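Notebook entry, structure prediction.
Reason for the run: the old model in the group folder had no record of what sequence produced it. Starting over properly, with the input documented here first.
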Amino acid sequence: EIGAGITVAKLRGMTEILAAQNPGQVQVVRINPAYPLRDSDDDTRGFVSIATTGLDALERIDAWLQKLDES
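New structure, fully documented this time:
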């Protein structure tokens, strides 16, 4: 989930419901500089929060993956 802030509550809620309904099968990565955390205080397993912009996160992930390929 990239850039879905609190004004996109429906998408954020659907993402959290999907994760809660499929424990151990769904890994949620929420990328948002202002609101990266879960909206609920429920179990946070399977949920990764990245507090940065979407472009920055994707560039860093890409660079990390390229380093893995080199090793």
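Summary: The chain has a mean pLDDT of 91.
The old model has been moved to the deprecated folder.
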